[in-house]
């Protein structure tokens, strides 16, 4: 019943828009702050997370710490680029209601990465709110660009697929 309400109710779409704008602003603000400062460097955060793999009460699981050591730290320059721009684009996508489901999915991925690295901050709150948006699907972006973009994309994809199906049936 809750899922149906999130997916179909037009009044809930207004609440979802408010949540989407709030989360979008949080991501946009975080990303732009990192980009405009020109000083963002994830290496300290990554090394700190790896350090938190050990001790009496480790806050980082060994499998995640291994990923950080073997993938993230060696390619920290790539992460220094991807994190701020990813945050900025997630924020823009949510604010504009543009590819909303994909935007919130990427935002949730980053939230979980931060939490797996031993931080909490606003990440749990953002995950909870983001899950409502993700479950609501297109209803979360009815007041946004997806209202016009998704039907056009569906028409392009399905008309092309039906044309291909008809041409294969004729042979």
Could you describe the 3D structure shown?
- The protein contains eight helices and no strands.
- It is mainly α and 171 residues long.
- Helix 2 packs antiparallel against helix 5.
- The longest helix has 28 residues.
- The mean pLDDT is 93.
Short description:
Helices cover 77% and strands 0% of the residues.
Write the topology of this structure.
Elements: H1 2-8, H2 10-37, H3 43-51, H4 62-72, H5 76-96, H6 100-116, H7 123-136, H8 146-170
Helix pairs in contact: 1-2, 1-7, 2-5, 2-7, 3-4, 5-6, 6-7
Beta strands, count: 0
Q: State mean pLDDT (0 to 100 scale).
A: 93
Strand fraction equals under 5%
| C-alpha end-to-end distance | 46 Å
Q: How would you name the oligomeric state of the polypeptide chains in this document?
A: single chain
Residues in helix, %: over 70%
**Residue runs with pLDDT of under 50 for 5 or more positions:** none
| Number of helical segments with 4 or more residues | 8
Secondary structural class: mainly alpha
The Rg value, from CA coordinates, equals 20 Å
